[in-house]
Amino acid sequence: MPLRHSGKPKANPESDSGQARMTNDAKITSYKNTEVVIKTNTSAAGFLFLSDTYYPGWRSYVDPSAGRRSSDEGSGQVETKIYRANYAFRAVSVPQGKHTVIFRYKPASLYYGVLISLGTFTIISLGIAVFLFVDSRKHKK
Prior knowledge:
- The protein is α+β, with helices and mostly antiparallel strands.
- It folds into two domains: about 5-105, Immunoglobulin-like (Sandwich); about 110-140.
- It has one helix and nine strands; from the N terminus they run E-E-E-E-E-E-E-E-E-H.
- The strands form two sheets. The chain has a five-stranded antiparallel β-sheet with strand order 2-3-9-5-6, with no helix packed on it. A four-stranded antiparallel β-sheet has the order 1-4-8-7, with no helix packed on it.
C-alpha cells in the first residue's frame, strides 16, 4: 500500500545530498468487511492510497491530532474526505507524523432500508391487530 507525497518528486531520490530521507510507513492493523484500520507514519503530508473499490458508502476518519474539524460522535476520530484515486480506488490525505486512519462502511441506503422495513412491519402489525380486534367483536355478538 503506497503512501504518496504531494509536491514535486526529486530528480534522483537515491542521491545522498545531506537532506533527511523521507519515511513513509503504512500498515493495515485490521481488515473487516465494514472497517479497515491503518497505522501511518510519514515524514511529510501526503495521500494514503487504498486499493479497495471506491464506493460512496465508505467514510474515513483520521485521529484528532490530524487537525480536521467535523468529528464522528464518540469515536475520538475526525472525519476526512475520501478521494477517488485512479477512478476505482480510495485515497485520503494524511498529515505528517504518526496517525491512525479508519475506513468505515456506513451506506445511507442501509439505514433507509431498515427504516422502510420497520415502517412496513409496524403498519402490517397494526393492520393485523385491528383485523383481529374487529373479528373478535363480531364473534361476541
